[in-house]
Structures are given as C-alpha cells and as structure tokens.
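ok new one. same drill as before - structure tokens go in, u give me an amino acid for every spot. 615 of them this time. try not to just spam alanines like last time pls lmao
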C-alpha cells in the first residue's frame, strides 16, 4: 500500500462514473481502483507542495498535477515522502519539456516547405492543447505524430525533429513512463542512423543523451524501489549503450559523466551483493571519470566524483581487513568537502559530512584508539545541522542511525553504559521515522542495531532482560533481512543473534541457547565466507569457537571441544594476514580457554599457530 494514505477507497458520495474512471485508470497501470483512489488522495493532500514546485519551475500547474498523479500510480507502494520528493524533482523535466515546445514552435515556423510546416503546426497545436488541460497521453500521441512527420528524407527539418524528439522524451521522463522511453529511444536511434553520415557527431551526442536519460530513470527506480533488475539494466545501458557513444577524445565531459553514473549504479547494486566485483568496478569507473573531471575545470563535478569514490571505497573497506581502503575513503570525502562548502551547497555538504562520519566510524572500529570514532560523532552532529527532521526527515533518520552506531562502538570501549544508553535512545527515535511500513529494510537495520546495543548492555548486567529484548529485536530484523534479499546484512543479524544467545547460554545450566547460538553462527558463515569478507569471517569464527568451548565445558563433550579447536586454528592463520590486533587478542583468549579445558578434562591439544601478543 501507499504508506500514510488511509482514506477509504470509495468514500460516501462517489459517483458510479468516478468508480468507472478509477477502474479504467487502474487498468493502465496494473492497479486496482482502491489503489488508484489512494494515490489520488495522496496527491490531493500534497497539492500545495506540488503546485509550488510547478510555480518555481514555471510549469503549467494543471499538467504538472497530472504528472504527479501518474508518478504516484507508476510508483505505487513507495514511501510517500520519497514519492513527493520525486515529484518535485520531476518539475525540472516538465520545465525542460515546455522549453523544448517553445524551441520546437520556433523551428517549425521557419520551415519553408508548407507540406512539412502545416501538418507539423497542426500536430504541435494538438500536443499543446492536450498538455494544458492535463491530457498527457494525448500530448504524447500528438508529439509522436510530429516526430513521424520528420521522415528520413526531410533534411531541412532536422532541428525541428530533434526539438520534437527531446520534448517527447522529456514528457515521457516526467511521467516516469519507462516503457514509452524504451520505444522512443529505439525509434529515435533508428531515425538518426539513416542520416548518420551527414551529422554523425551531433547524432552521437543525442543518442548518448537518450541512453543516459533511460539509464538514469532505471537507476532511480532501482534505488527507490529496491529493484535490482532495474539496476542491472541501468548498468548495461551505461556500459554498452552510453559509453560507446561518448568519445573520450571528442566529448570528455560526456564520457566522464557516463563513467561516474556507471560507478554510482555499480556501487548501488554492489552494496546489496555478497561479491565485491561490482564495488571494485565502481571504484575503477569513478577514478576514470576523475581523470576527465579536473578540479580546476569543474570543481563541483569533481567534488561529486570524489564523494562517489569515497562511498565505493568505504563499502569495500568495510568488508576487508586492514584500513587502506577506509583511509582512502576518508581522504575522498575530505576533498569533496573542500568544494562542497556549507555556504555553497548546504545539503551536499551535510551529505559529505555524513559519509565522512561513516568512513571514520568504520576506520575507528579497526583501531584501538577512539580518535576516529570521536571524529565520526562530530561529523554526524555537523550533518544534523542541515539534515533536520523537519526539512529532510529520512536523511535525518539515516544520520541519527549512523550516529547511534558510532555511540555503540564507543560504548564497547568504555566500562560504563552511558554511551550504550545514548545509542539505544537514538535507535528508538530513528524507528519513529524508519517504520516497517515506510522503509522496511531501514527499519530492520535499526532493529538490528538496537538489538546489538541491548545485547552489549545485557552482557554487562547480571539480569537477562536486555539480552531477551536483544534476541527479540534480531528476530524482528530477520523478518525483513532475508538471505535472498540482502545476504550480507542477513548474515550480520544472524551473527548478532548468535552472540546474544551465546551470552544467555553461558548463564544457564542447559545447552539449548548455546546450540541455537552455534546454529546462528553457522548460518552467518554461509555468507560471511573467508574469500568474500575475511575480517567478518574471522570474527564470526572466533565467537563460534567461544560458544563451542562453553558447550564442551557444560556438557563435557569432546566433540564440541574439537570443533572449537578447528575454528581457533583457522582463525589464527587468517588473522596473520588481516593484521587486526583486536581479533588477535580475542583468538588468543579463546586458545588459552581451550588449553585450560584440556587440562581440566585431560584432553589432548595439538600445537596451535601463534596468535602473537594478546596483551
């Protein structure tokens, strides 16, 4: 459902004619009449915001209201806040459409051949009249007739045809009509190919622009609706459609824009996958873009690419051992902030501050010092100066969420629970905006982080209340964080669930909780493999060994003990390559525990690889 729309479908007084209208409209978009009514209610409720966007861009308000309805129908089920922002953004495409209509009228008026000019003027008049009364489909059909009038043989009408084609495409983009965009792009490419020899360079740019428009629409859909298929198609269009048309030697700016857009699409998809292939390719694409986006020539575009590069590097660095990628990410965000100043572009500045905080948080989690973590807190607090709840509620929630995770990490380093309590309070206010109905995956992420915080608080207390609450939070998170949907995040929550169950089990006489913990760790390791995410694999493997050692002590079972030894042995070998001191200390403690149990039960212990100093 469209979250936040609660009006009944057929309110009292609704005529049978209106009911039939909803049925017809719904048939075009694959929706039920009830769903059409919800969308119309949402658009009417936000009429002032939508009309203001039209006024700001000097767009026909009646037409733009109809564009808003179509966007709502095509994106049914999307969070209303995101949808209204998407509608506001589409005012720019609507404005470009109206500018193109003005240009088109000028081009048609100077055509000397009346056999071309007269039907062209008639088609334009039909399109203009339909658009002004909100008949978008009628306007689209009339413009389609106009592009067909051009024909291959009418060389003198090239500029008029191009203006008509751009107007047609801009209107389809404003309506979010990807299927029609598909058709228009193909038809435009076929027409241009017939005169390729006469104006090859101009047509190449126009084809490129069409491909970029289509790929951009697909990227938007993939980001907004979690549609991985749309993202994969956007990547294919950027790589196989747009890049071959943007020649680096003749159009370096277009080529750089394509590489950067490709990098963003690869990064967006790569975050959702277990493999790092797309993330690595994202870094490569964005670095290529930077080669043609020097700071002195295009400072804001350079900053945009630096921010994109930082995101890709941070995603890679969070999955691998060591700190090199994360340090590179910090540098990239710092460079972006040199041009994205608060005075110049406040929301971009806040976004870069938030991203810088994320990179510092990831870096600080690998270091014994809390310096990076404290700097991350500062960065998030700065970002919240612009990311206010009233202005951008979802960005505010995201920044608060990141702040909460950093407070949790700091809380792990301190004896008291003050930071942990702050973190828990932060996650609870985040959940006020990140509801399950509005943003289910974000809601699950906040549940997971709240659970991790409660588990740590429970570890430091004698009672089990916080630990039980943590287990409940992890189970809730797993209802949305499925292995099929987001495998790595699913594995994180399985790991966290196992940790909480291990703590509970260590305080009970029975073995049920500990056995459940081992099962959770086993599930996590299905995705947290040594090849994909070696740091995370080692962390889960060590904690699994701890649960097995407790099981062996409670039950007296040597089988559990031998399984724990295999985990410790494998983790020690891997940690030598990861060079992480915290993991080194933890596996050293596990090895000492194993030796003590061997003495207690007279079990033999093979010589284990050295974990190095664990002081």
């Amino acid at each position: 459902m469209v979250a936040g729309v609660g009006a009944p479908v057929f309110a009292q007084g609704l005529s049978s004619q209106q009911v039939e209208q909803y049925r017809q409209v719904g048939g075009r978009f694959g929706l039920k009449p009830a769903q059409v009514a919800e969308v119309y209610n949402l658009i009417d409720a936000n009429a002032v915001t939508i009309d203001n966007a039209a006024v700001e861009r000097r767009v026909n308000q009646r037409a733009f209201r109809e564009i808003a309805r179509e966007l709502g129908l095509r994106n049914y089920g999307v969070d209303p806040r995101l949808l209204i922002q998407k509608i506001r953004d589409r005012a720019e495409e609507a404005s470009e459409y109206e500018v193109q209509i003005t240009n088109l009228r000028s081009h048609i008026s100077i055509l000397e051949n009346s056999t071309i000019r007269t039907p062209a003027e008639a088609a334009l008049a039909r399109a203009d009249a339909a658009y002004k009364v909100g008949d978008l489909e009628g306007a689209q059909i009339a413009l389609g007739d106009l592009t067909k009038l051009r024909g291959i043989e009418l060389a003198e009408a090239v500029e008029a045809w191009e203006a008509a084609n751009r107007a047609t495409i801009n209107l389809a983009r404003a309506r979010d009509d990807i299927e029609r965009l598909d058709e228009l792009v193909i038809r435009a490419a076929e027409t241009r190919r017939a005169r390729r020899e006469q104006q090859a360079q101009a047509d190449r740019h126009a084809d490129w622009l069409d491909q970029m428009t289509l790929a951009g629409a697909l990227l938007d859909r993939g980001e907004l609706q979690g549609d991985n298929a749309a993202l994969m198609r956007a990547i294919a269009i950027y790589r196989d459609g747009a890049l071959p048309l943007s020649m680096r030697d003749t159009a370096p700016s277009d080529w750089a824009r394509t590489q950067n857009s490709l990098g963003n699409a690869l990064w967006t998809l790569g975050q959702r996958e277990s493999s790092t292939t797309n993330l690595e390719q994202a870094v490569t694409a964005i670095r290529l873009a930077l080669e043609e986006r020097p700071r002195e020539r295009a400072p804001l575009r350079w900053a945009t690419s630096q921010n994109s590069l930082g995101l890709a590097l941070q995603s890679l660095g969070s999955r691998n051992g060591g700190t090199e990628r994360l340090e590179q990410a910090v540098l990239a965000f710092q460079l972006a902030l040199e041009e994205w100043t608060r005075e110049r572009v406040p929301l971009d500045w806040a976004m870069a501050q938030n991203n810088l905080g994320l990179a510092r948080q990831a870096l600080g989690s690998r270091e014994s010092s809390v310096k990076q973590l404290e700097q991350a807190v500062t960065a998030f607090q700065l970002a919240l100066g612009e990311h206010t709840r009233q202005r951008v509620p979802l960005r505010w929630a995201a920044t608060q969420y990141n702040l909460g995770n950093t407070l949790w990490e700091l809380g792990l380093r301190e004896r008291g629970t003050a930071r942990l309590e702050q973190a828990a309070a932060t996650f609870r206010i985040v959940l006020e905006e990140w509801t399950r109905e509005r943003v289910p995956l974000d809601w699950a992420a906040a549940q997971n982080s709240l659970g991790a915080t409660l588990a740590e608080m429970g570890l430091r207390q004698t009672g089990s209340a916080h630990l039980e609450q943590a287990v409940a939070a992890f189970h809730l998170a797993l209802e949305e964080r499925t292995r099929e949907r987001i495998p790595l995040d699913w594995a994180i929550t399985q790991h966290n669930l196992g940790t909480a169950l291990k703590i509970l089990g260590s305080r009970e006489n029975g073995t049920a909780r500990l056995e459940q913990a081992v099962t959770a760790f086993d599930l996590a390791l299905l995705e947290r493999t040594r090849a994909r995410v070696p740091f995370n694999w080692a962390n889960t493997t060590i904690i699994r060994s701890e649960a097995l050692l407790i099981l062996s002590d409670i039950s007296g079972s040597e089988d559990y003990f031998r399984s724990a030894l295999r985990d410790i042995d494998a983790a020690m070998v891997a940690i030598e390559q990861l060079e992480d001191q915290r993991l080194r200390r933890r596996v050293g403690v596990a090895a000492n525990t194993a030796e003590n149990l061997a003495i207690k039960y007279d079990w033999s212990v093979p010589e284990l690889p050295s974990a190095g100093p664990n002081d």
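Residues 53 and 88 are 6 Å apart (CA to CA). and btw The chain has a mean pLDDT of 88.
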